Amino acid sequence: MPRVCFTLQVDPERLDEYRARHAKVWPEMLAALAESGWHDYSLFLREDGLLVGYLVTDDFAAAQAAMQTRDVNARWQAEMASYFVDLDQGAADRAMRPLDEVFNLEAQLAAETGEPS
What we know:
Blueprint: E1 3-9, H1 15-23, H2 27-35, E2 39-45, E3 50-56, H3 60-68, H4 71-80, H5 92-95, E4 97-98, H6 105-113
Antiparallel strand pairs: 1-3, 1-4, 2-3
């Protein structure tokens, strides 16, 4: 299953608030993410506000599109938008900047042994 990693920028002056909001995400938001194909989803936050997200999904575009149909996502994005800087597209979930994967240990080990990764 493909892995996706993306970055966003959180306002450095609001890091504590951002962390607090993610300490207990709304149960209906958690369910919507899981039902929309977001698996093993994690967020990592650096002290300068760099946010790195990671997830596994069969189809990232489809997983994003599925979340766009959810009312809970619209409410969550509206509440979270003020925590981010440089949101060209108005909502964090549409401004994610996916990164190209350039190394994966398991894939290279599997290639060495001829096993599927």
